[in-house]
Specification:
By secondary structure, the chain is mainly α. Helices cover 71% and strands 0% of the residues. The model has no long low-confidence stretch (mean pLDDT 86).
């Protein structure tokens, strides 16, 4: 579990921070729900673009929603990275056995959720294209792509944080 280069040393140094409020399962799950809310803002921006673009209202709303999701989401992502101790993002040689097991169990679940998400997007776009206005604004396609990419990228971390058990209590010296 020794770092091989300076980048790995910096990654481990970030994980030394303590966030006791979010170290418990309940706290981690609150972070996951907040992060999912940030992803929801990006999906809402895609819907706004789909129905209002091209218009100033669509542009302003999309920028506000995506900017808010980006700023708040970056903070939440860092906190999730710390409370999971890098389980979803550190190289495998830096993880202990428990973390490797958690990562290996979270990735298949994240892939199943991704498949369900792709199916839902396919069905939603298919239904939306059957309306009287079959053209798709290019802004909506771009925002939808970014929302999809952000969701797929973050699902392994969210699943890991959601499923992660509380760390074992430290033994006290008797």
């Amino acid at each position: 579990m020794k770092p091989r280069n300076r980048r790995e040393e910096r990654m481990l140094a970030v994980l030394e921070r303590e966030t006791p409020r979010y170290q418990t399962r309940k706290g981690r799950r609150r972070l996951v729900v907040a992060a999912a809310g940030c992803l929801g803002l990006m999906w809402a921006a895609a819907v706004v673009c789909w129905y209002l673009a091209p218009s100033t209202a669509a542009m302003v709303t999309t920028f506000v929603l995506c900017g808010l999701a980006l700023v708040v989401g970056a903070q939440l992502w860092g906190m999730l990275h710390i409370v999971t101790r890098g389980t979803a993002s550190l190289p495998e040689h830096l993880l202990d056995e428990r973390q490797v097991r958690e990562r290996l169990s979270a990735h298949p679940i994240a892939h199943r959720l991704t498949l369900l998400l792709l199916l839902a997007v396919f069905l939603a776009v298919g239904l939306a294209l059957q309306e009287e206005r079959p053209e798709v604004p290019s802004a909506a396609a771009v925002v939808l792509l970014f929302a999809l990419m952000a969701t797929v990228w973050s699902l392994p971390m969210l699943v890991t944080a959601w499923r992660m058990a509380d760390p074992p209590p430290e033994e006290e010296a008797v």
